[in-house]
């Protein structure tokens, strides 16, 4: 009777399982956005563009012929990423520009420099984010996640609105996620200075992203500027680097368990391409897309009065209409 060789059997089984997991992962990542859609002649700004989903979005836009400005805090990493993308895509019109969303002064400096260099802006992608950071505040006194994920992007977008309108048809893409469904806007303590909980603070900012997108879309009706909020899904990026799990030995157990259902960054970036380039979204007014499909956000995200309240507070806290030289702190 033939007896299978145990080592060969084990190796074959492991290889077959690994292959099946990889196939499942590819299928779970979803279909890519239409590769035939080009972006020649378009100018794109992407925040958080040096790593993860932002980096892959830059690669995709570059491959399709766009001129891309990478708005990043870490310029060393940004330049390394830029060189890599230029070499891989053959598109030399990729630029790094400093933009620290945790500093409103840095945001204003980025906008001033961009406007001095570029006459138009076709696509703005608000992608950068931090997640579950330790308790802290930005240079302007905002809770870190609120400052980076919402306030910085709120100011950036509003300061670029005149250019976006002049460049119409143009688009704003706001990256959020399903965590918005667990979020609350803490009206009495938006900065969460009295009782800080990292996950609650993160979920608040993701809800704020959707409220901002919907209110911005309402304000830009008939302007030629479309606004979409997108959820890239559960993605394999370094966004979770501040979570306790990522700093403990448990990551070696948890990561392999979730790896098969985590999207690779390039697969996750397809929702950005879809919102930025699909002709069917040309009139989007704050609509929410998951896996390139129109979805319904939480009831709180559809609260018009809450969106208005957050907009007014954000205007005040970022001192949107003040002279750039003036300082800012939450009141």
From TrEMBL:
GO terms for molecular function: oxidoreductase activity. PANTHER family: PHOSPHATIDYLINOSITOL-GLYCAN BIOSYNTHESIS CLASS F PROTEIN, PHOSPHATIDYLINOSITOL-GLYCAN BIOSYNTHESIS CLASS F PROTEIN-RELATED. It comes from the Eukaryota. Signal peptide: none annotated. It comes from Papilio xuthus. Keywords: Oxidoreductase. The keyword Oxidoreductase applies. The keyword Oxidoreductase applies. This is Retinol dehydrogenase 13.
